[in-house]
Structure to design on (458 residues):
């Protein structure tokens, strides 16, 4: 007597098979940013602070483009759910995504070129803003190639063949490390460029990643069949508008989330330089932990989207709940590690034995204690947003993010930082409160998806 495979077990395997390469790719990309921070740490705490300011401003704009690119995943996934081989629809979706990236890149470049003035207008120290501007003049050119790479990575992920993107990001780690070493410190006969060299190294790395991904989709037979560059200048305005209608709320949601942490860095800069440097280290460690639930949420978007395209409510439910539960399990592990090994983790970025760094180390450790507390809620809100995107539900989650991050998170955090003795630790406690509010709202909406009519009946 044979028994049919358990559908939950089958879904778990499919979800993990898609999520693991995405998680590895996310961790590898985060490692690239960590290498940049390590090189800047060799130049001193002020360089770390300037790099943090530049990256925070840059990422605030980058995530907007990433949000538009993220719309590729649920669109292609639902198209695959409706038809086995939607070649023309996939090609048109990707074409409009690349058009959208080109449209937003020019104004972003213009703004980032004047980042020193922007940072001064935000109240940052002129000397620190000037140094951050040096970083940005090299970094801003990464914007277009990285977003094109990211869109193509979402394309192959939605086709459930993400490994090529993983390999490219992993290969980019030594490329970025070598470029940073050469350009920042003036090795191999190249003049030392300092902070500008750090930004330029990231731009060269982004160019490498896009070129490598483009080569893969033009050479690999499974990807080449979609002819992504075929008839590239032919418009599809209804699809362009739908991509923006779906992707704009995602972009705003991601921007709200990321800019909360960016705003916290700016607020840290108003406290003192030690708090800013400690925040840069702690947020980098928290971001490393976040890469796993982020990858799980990306995989859940695809798996939920395929079920959504088929109109299969059971498949939608299995994919979403499994992603949330798996992500929570990982979050518990990372929270334990942050509590158990804070000094060792901070030591990855700065010399913890140097007397000059004592205050930065102390503050970074206190921030990590709070980061451990919000691992659970940060994981839940990230995956909750991912499963809702699979249902093409992006507007209400955007409102959740606005209230949770900016009303609760920044409101509570700023009060505790500037009106109580908690200072930087209070700011981190406010962030935790905002993440908790968003997590509760996202999961509640997911649980009520049937009553809200988010899953079509077929």
């Amino acid at each position: 007597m044979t028994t049919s495979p358990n559908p939950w077990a089958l879904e778990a395997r499919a979800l993990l098979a898609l999520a693991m390469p995405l998680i590895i790719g996310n961790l590898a990309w985060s490692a690239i940013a960590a290498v940049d921070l390590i090189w800047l740490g060799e130049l001193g705490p002020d360089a770390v602070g300037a790099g943090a300011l530049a990256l925070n401003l840059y990422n605030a704009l980058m995530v907007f483009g990433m949000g538009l690119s993220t719309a590729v995943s649920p669109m292609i996934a639902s198209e695959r759910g409706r038809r086995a081989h939607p070649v023309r629809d996939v090609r048109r979706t990707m074409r409009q995504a690349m058009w959208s990236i080109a449209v937003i890149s020019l104004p972003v470049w213009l703004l980032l070129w004047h980042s020193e003035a922007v940072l001064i207008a935000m109240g940052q120290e002129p000397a620190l803003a000037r140094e951050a501007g040096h970083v940005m003049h090299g970094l801003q050119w990464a914007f277009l190639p990285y977003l094109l790479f990211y869109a193509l990575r979402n394309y192959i992920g939605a086709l459930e063949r993400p490994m090529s993107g993983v390999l490219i990001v992993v290969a980019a780690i030594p490329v970025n490390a070598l470029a940073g070493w050469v350009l920042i410190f003036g090795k191999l006969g190249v003049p030392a460029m300092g902070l500008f060299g750090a930004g330029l190294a990231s731009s060269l790395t982004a160019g490498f990643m896009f070129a490598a991904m483009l080569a893969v989709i033009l050479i690999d037979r499974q990807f080449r069949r979609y002819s992504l560059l075929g008839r590239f200048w032919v418009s599809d305005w209804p699809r362009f508008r739908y991509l923006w209608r779906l992707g704009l709320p995602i972009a705003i949601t991601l921007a709200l989330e990321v800019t909360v942490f960016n705003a916290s860095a700016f607020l840290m800069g108003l406290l003192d330089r030690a708090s800013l440097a400690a925040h840069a280290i702690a947020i980098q460690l928290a971001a490393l932990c976040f890469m796993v639930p982020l990858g799980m949420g990306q995989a859940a978007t695809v798996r939920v989207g395929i079920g959504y395209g088929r109109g299969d409510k059971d498949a939608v439910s299995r994919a979403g709940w499994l992603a949330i539960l798996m992500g929570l399990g990982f979050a518990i592990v990372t929270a334990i590690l942050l509590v158990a090994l804070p000094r060792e983790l901070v030591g990855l970025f700065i010399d913890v034995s140097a007397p000059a760094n004592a205050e930065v180390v102390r503050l970074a450790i206190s921030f990590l204690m709070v980061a451990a507390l919000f691992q659970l809620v940060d994981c839940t809100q990230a995956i909750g947003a991912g499963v809702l995107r699979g249902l093409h539900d992006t507007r209400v989650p955007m409102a959740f993010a606005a209230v949770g991050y900016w009303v609760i998170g920044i409101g509570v955090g700023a009060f505790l930082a500037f009106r109580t003795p908690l200072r930087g630790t209070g700011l981190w406690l406010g962030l935790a409160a905002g993440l908790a509010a968003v997590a509760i709202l996202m999961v509640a909406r997911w649980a009520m998806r049937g009553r809200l009519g988010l899953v079509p009946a077929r």
Summary: Residues 5 and 287 are 37 Å apart (CA to CA).
